[in-house]
C-alpha cells in the first residue's frame, strides 16, 4: 500500500519534533524550504504541516512562521470517573505523583459544606503534584472525612490511587459533581506548575459521592492552561 507523500512528510516532521531536532518554540523551515528538502510541491508540504497544526504539534504565527508546540493533554475526567494515573497511561503518557502534604486538619467552612461534616471536625488533607512525561500538569488538594477512613494515614499515595483506596476501604465513589473556573496562577501555584505568575489555570472543584450520595471526597484541582484541554460530552 502506497503511503501518500504528505503523510510521509508529516511523519518525518513529527519524528524530528519528538526527537527534539525541532525543539519546542523553534521555527521549522518554511514551506518553500521544506518543499525543496522533500522534493515535493508546496501544497503537499502545506497539507503535512496543517495535519500537525490540527494535532497540536505546530502553530502558525502571523509574520513569524510555524513553530513547534507541545500538544495539550485532552483530559476526559469531566465525564469519566477514572484515576489520573489510569487516564495518563491510557494516553501513552508516563504519570508520576509527588506528595506535598498529607495529614489531618480541621475542616474550614468550605470543606465543611462540601463534605457535609461539622465545622472544625477532623479531615484528611492530601496535596499532590501530578506529572505527565516529567512535566507538572495539575496541583490537587483533596479532603476526606476522617470518621469514614480512620486508617487512611497509613497509605502511601505516591504509589496508591486515591479512588481505589477509598473503594477498598468500603466507600467507593460512584458519582461526582464538578465546577470549573478560570483563575490566574498565584506565586505558589506558578512555582509548582512551572508556569509564569498570572497565567490562566483551570480550577476545578470536585465532590465525590457514594452510591447513597454521601460526600466521600472534596478536592480542588489547578490544571495548567497551556498543557491541558477538556472534553465535555452532552447527550439529550
Automatic annotation (TrEMBL):
Keywords: DNA-binding, Transcription, Transcription regulation. InterPro entries: Bact_HTH_transcr_reg, Chorismate_lyase_/UTRA_dom_sf, Tscrpt_reg_HTH_GntR, UTRA, WH-like_DNA-bd_sf, WH_DNA-bd_sf. PROSITE patterns: HTH_GNTR. Pfam families: GntR (PF00392), UTRA (PF07702). The keyword DNA-binding applies. Residues 3-71 form the HTH gntR-type domain. GO terms for molecular function: DNA binding; DNA-binding transcription factor activity. It comes from the Bacteria. One of its GO terms (biological process) is negative regulation of DNA-templated transcription. The keyword Transcription applies. PANTHER family: MANNOSYL-D-GLYCERATE TRANSPORT/METABOLISM SYSTEM REPRESSOR MNGR-RELATED, MANNOSYL-D-GLYCERATE TRANSPORT_METABOLISM SYSTEM REPRESSOR MNGR-RELATED. This is GntR family transcriptional regulator. It comes from Marinilactibacillus piezotolerans. The lineage of its organism: Bacteria, Bacillati, Bacillota, Bacilli, Lactobacillales.
Amino acid at each position: 500500500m502506497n503511503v501518500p507523500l504528505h503523510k510521509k512528510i508529516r511523519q518525518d516532521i513529527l519524528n524530528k519534533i519528538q526527537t527534539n531536532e525541532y525543539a519546542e518554540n523553534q521555527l521549522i523551515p518554511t514551506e518553500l524550504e521544506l518543499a525543496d528538502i522533500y522534493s515535493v510541491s508546496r501544497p503537499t508540504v502545506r497539507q503535512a504541516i496543517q495535519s500537525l497544526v490540527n494535532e497540536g504539534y505546530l502553530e502558525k504565527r502571523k509574520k513569524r512562521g510555524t513553530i513547534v508546540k507541545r500538544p495539550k493533554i485532552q483530559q476526559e475526567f469531566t465525564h469519566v470517573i477514572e484515576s489520573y494515573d489510569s487516564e495518563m497511561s491510557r494516553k501513552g503518557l508516563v504519570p508520576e505523583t509527588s506528595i506535598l502534604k498529607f495529614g489531618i486538619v480541621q475542616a474550614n467552612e468550605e470543606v465543611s459544606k462540601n463534605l457535609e461534616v461539622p465545622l472544625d471536625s477532623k479531615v484528611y488533607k492530601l496535596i499532590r503534584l501530578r506529572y505527565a512525561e516529567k512535566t507538572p500538569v495539575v496541583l490537587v488538594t483533596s479532603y476526606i472525612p476522617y470518621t469514614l477512613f480512620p486508617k487512611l494515614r497509613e497509605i502511601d499515595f505516591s504509589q496508591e490511587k486515591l479512588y481505589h483506596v477509598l473503594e477498598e476501604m468500603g466507600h467507593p465513589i460512584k458519582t461526582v459533581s464538578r465546577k470549573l473556573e478560570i483563575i490566574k496562577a498565584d506565586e505558589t501555584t506558578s512555582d509548582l506548575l512551572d508556569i509564569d505568575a498570572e497565567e490562566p489555570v483551570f480550577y476545578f472543584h470536585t465532590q465525590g459521592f457514594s452510591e447513597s450520595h454521601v460526600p466521600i471526597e472534596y478536592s480542588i484541582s489547578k490544571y495548567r492552561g497551556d498543557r491541558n484541554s477538556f472534553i465535555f460530552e452532552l447527550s439529550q
